[in-house]
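Field log, afternoon session.

UNIT: design team B
ACTIVITY: writing a sequence onto a fixed backbone
BACKBONE:
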């Protein structure tokens, strides 16, 4: 299984390319939707990596993708929208639905 990065940041694409992850530059929402659709229908792709800014643009489409068994969708911080204060706690709450205080 392969991974693919969808981002609007050329710096992040370059950085992950050095780690062996193919990146696709998405300049607008339509370009992003097209590439997300292609990635979800490619049987060789197991992980779709999105930057936080890109994720915000296509929330409705992501809900449909996350309901499927494959591929796994992972969001990473980008240069514009970094980590939130309680990122780990929010991630656990969103993932499994429990609140940790």
């Amino acid at each position: 299984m392969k991974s693919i990065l969808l981002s609007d940041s050329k710096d992040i694409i370059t950085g992950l390319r050095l780690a062996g992850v193919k990146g696709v530059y998405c300049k607008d929402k339509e370009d992003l939707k097209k590439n997300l659709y292609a990635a979800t229908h490619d049987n060789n792709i197991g992980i779709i990596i999105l930057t936080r800014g890109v994720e915000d643009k296509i929330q409705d489409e992501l809900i449909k993708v996350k309901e499927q068994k494959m591929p796994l969708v992972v969001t990473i911080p980008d240069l514009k929208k970094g980590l939130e204060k309680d990122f780990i706690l929010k991630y656990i709450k969103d993932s499994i639905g429990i609140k940790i205080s």
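LOG NOTE: Helices lie at 10-18, 29-40, 52-57, 59-67, 87-96.
NEXT ACTIVITY: expression trials, pending approval
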